[in-house]
Amino acid sequence: MKALVISVGTGVGKTRATSENLAKALSFSIAQHNPDTTFFVASKESEKTVSQIIKQSHIDKYEVITIENPDDTQAIYETLEPKFKQITKIYNHVTVDYTSGTKAMTAALAILATTYEVAALSYVAGKREGGIVKQGTEQLKIIKPYFATTEKKRNIAVHMFNNNQFNATITIIKTIEKTTADPTITNKTKTLKMLAKAYAEWDKFNHQRAFALIKKISMTELSLNKKFLGQLLNSKQPEPYYIVDLLNNAKRRGMEEQKYDDATARLYRTIELIGQYQLKAKYGIHTSEVSPNQLPEKLRQEWGINLTTEPIKIGLQRAYELLAAKNDEIGKKFLADNKLKDLLNKRNTSILAHDLKPVDKQTYTQLYKKVTEYAQTVVPNLHMLQKEATFIKLTRN
Predict the structure, then answer these.
(1) Is 209 helix (H, G, I), strand (E, B) or coil?
(2) CATH fold of 2-144, please?
(3) Distance in angstroms (rounded) separating the CA atoms of residues 96 and 111
(4) pTM of the prediction?
């Protein structure tokens, strides 16, 4: 179903001859577009011209939308906006012709055409006499407004990307791709789409998929990201990189997105991983399978374990107790750190853990600072690696 929205003025001089010539030019537009329904945007003064157009065009499906003040863009927009909403819902192909009408009328129509993403804008060109296209010289000029609409969408996609809404970014770009295959536009969106896909995978800790995608993107800004992911995936001891990645993930969730429960859950896992890494790196102990003979005798007695007991799995608290029992500084620090224990307890009572109390900004901020302090103990180049693992932000250009 095709609709044509066409503005109708009175012609220069407002004589009968100019009105007739204008009617012929606009009738030419209607004949070229061949719409199922024509919507005339006219003032009271130009309604006579509309009658002439209808008579010359021999159309029977039309509607006249009368505007009160043809020189008030805002008022015209407010009158036409609900009608545009209705038209674009009913008709799948809408063209706006702004050959005629006041500057205010054509401005309002151009704004509405862009806002509602009509299929085309058009006007009748040709040799003019008295401001009216001379009969027999008419040429229909078509303008595709998708350049403006897709640029607006691309800017929204960049905004979503910079706010870590990567799936939303991909969805917006897909709508652009459905609108046009113009390489001028798609070349801009292709890289953004691939980068959003890479970061969406990385944000979910799918590092292998993220690296496979990000390697294909030629952007100098991504050199640090590529270096970090390559190190994480190829290191014999990847835990330091996972610690960094968890911290950055928590930072995105907390500082950028204000999702404090999500952020705190990641910080809890980070402090747990720090203990696991320290045990593995310094003592060759894996918390998923701790043999009784790896435990100091005093700790075996406290935990009720003897040398014949099968290997056990230990959690966060016991990992640090084991480190402390081995006289490890980070273990002793943890056991004496009542502030950290209090913050972790607030995580345990959060809605994402064992209770229904949401985590507030202050708890998140304090816990992030504490966990970073512990992370620096086992990852000396922490801040440098955090920089390498930081998601880039894009400019809208």
Answers:
(1) helix
(2) Rossmann fold (3.40.50)
(3) 11
(4) 0.75
